[in-house]
Design a protein that fits this description.
With about 260 residues, the protein is an alpha+beta fold. The chain has one domain. The strands form 3 sheets. Strands 1-3-4-5-6-10-11-14 form an 8-stranded antiparallel β-barrel. The chain has a two-stranded antiparallel ribbon with strand order 8-9.
Amino acid sequence: MAYRVQAVFTELVSINTIIIYLHMTRIILSVFIFAMPFLSTAQIRIGLRSHFGGMQAIHHVAEYYNKNRPWLDNDMRTGTSMTGFEIGIGGARKNYGYSFLNIHYVWTNRKASGTTPAGEDFTRKVHLSQVGVDWLDVWWTPLHFKRFNFGFGIMPAGTATINISTKYNGEKTKITTSHNTGSDYFLGIPLGHIYHVPHIDVTHVNDKGTGLHLQLFYTIGPSQEYDLAYLNREINPKSYNDINKRTLLEVNNFGLKLMCNF
């Protein structure tokens, strides 16, 4: 019976992986069809990216860790923001802009340390990161004030993967999630989940399209895609069953990025 259930589960995972790959192929083809007329005028885009206001499961697990260790000298940080960088290709004019193949990497690190009741000095570190690709992004900026342009836009489909690891006194353990079957990447492309991003835009560009682009966005991703239960079990081996908060990691969050075209 257990073998049959496992076989059915494996088959469903395989079907889901094939569906994701088909979506991925359609997205890539659409991006290249859109991008071809613009390649001659496209520029390099590079900048800073930050995520905040979501992923509450990180807060729940870190808070539970601290609660079970009142003797910590340094509590584990419970914030959920992640910061990193983004690089891609695109262009901008006074009234509009576009970008494609924007690769981002954002991360958060947290650390706890102290001396256990048994007299052991220790340090526990947790690293959580997201690598993703915004395959296509467009914006319209019809409002102008001096040399600044204001508007909004949409990134219709991106793909990303969440990676988690922890270290105890320097010994690293990679944490899997309940859906992780080893297919979160395909040919180096992150495929853990698909997300969509509406955004508000402010640009400052010259006649050649070089300049700055500030974007406030909201990521709309799948609910219950990742589960931090395995992270909770790794860092709370004796009490992980008693947590009374959700460990399902929802990837919806606000974000802010500042990009430079050159």
